[in-house]
Design goal:
The protein is an alpha+beta fold. It has 4 helices and 2 strands, in the order βααααβ.
Amino acid sequence: MSRRAHLIELGLVLVLWDEQTAEVLNPHASKIISVVSLQRGEQTFTSLKSLQGRELLKQNILSAKQKIMQTEVGRFGIENILFTRYTLQ
C-alpha cells in the first residue's frame, strides 16, 4: 500500500494576557514551537481536515503551551491561539 505525502502548513498567533508575558515567552520560543510540531504529528491528515480536528489541534497546542509557561515561568500567560494560516494539501 502506497502512502501519499501531504503538506500541512500552519500559521499561529498567540493571544497573551499581557506585555510581560511576551517578554518571558521569548527565551522559551523554541520549546513552544516544537509543541506545535508534536501536537500536529499526533493527528491524522483526515482528522485535521475536519472542523473538530482543527479545534482539537488548537486546544491541544494551547494546553501544551500553557503547561510549558506554567512550568518555566510560573503562570499560563497564553490566553488563546488563532490560526492565521491553515493549509492542507
